[in-house]
Amino acid sequence: MNKTNHFKRQALIASVLLAAPLVSHSAIVPDRTRVIFNGNENSITVTLKNGNATLPYLAQAWLEDDKFAKDTRYFTALPPLQRIEPKSDGQVKVQPLPAAASLPQDRESLFYFNVREIPPKSDKPNTLQLALQTRIKFFYRPVAVARQVDKTHPWQTKLTLTYQGDGVIFDNPTPFYLVISNAGSKENETASGFKNLLIAPREKVTSPIKGASLGQLAGGGLRR
């Protein structure tokens, strides 16, 4: 390819990109950032809000396992597809299937609740539209585990840290999942090398941060 053809090709790509604006804002959003499904519940309802003032959207809902693979064994989301009018709400009912009884009863199980928004066909030419997807954590909490919830002594306080030369070990001895969103020695300051942690029940996770950068746990350096 000579330079002239190369420049023409680059100019063509640029003109196509300029002519195809990217529609990337999310219109359909759930009414929460995570779902907790207690074992004694027959169903739970998640409200979906269409924030667009003029356009209706289709909303597709389903559940995934903890490896982000679509999972239809334990729960079902109904309806799987619905139309939500502008500035209106839709609802998804999540119900357990018989196989849910086979899930561990001594600890939480993790799934993901997904919503994909499908926009209406644009009447503008050369417009690139995306089907955006929202994924939130879905925790199945058995009855025996739900009884252990103590608001006066939150299970998060049972987390222990062990300092090692190559990092810090976070030990979760509880039957609950722990989400560590930040860790540092000062308020609103994140320790170097720290990344968000999701710690399964009765498991340990090592983070490549220095113990000294966490300061004292009692001082609020560790936040959930």
Q: How is this structure best described in words?
A:
- The chain is mainly beta and 224 residues long.
- The chain folds into two domains: 23-146, Immunoglobulins (Immunoglobulin-like), CATH 2.60.40; 155-219, Sandwich (Immunoglobulin-like), CATH 2.60.40.10.
- 9% of the residues lie in helices and 39% in strands.
- It is built from two helices and 18 strands.
- The chain has helices at residues 3-19, 143-146, and strands at 22-23, 28-30, 34-38, 44-50, 57-64, 75-78, 81-84, 89-96, 109-118, 128-129, 133-141, 160-164, 167-172, 178-180, 182-183, 197-199, 203-207, 222-223.
- A hairpin with a 2-residue loop joins strand 12 and strand 13 (167-172).
- The longest helix has 17 residues, at 3-19.
- The model is unreliable at 3-24 and 216-224 (pLDDT under 50).
- Pfam families: PapD_N.
- It is found in: Periplasm.
- Keywords: Chaperone, Fimbrium biogenesis, Immunoglobulin domain, Periplasm, Signal.
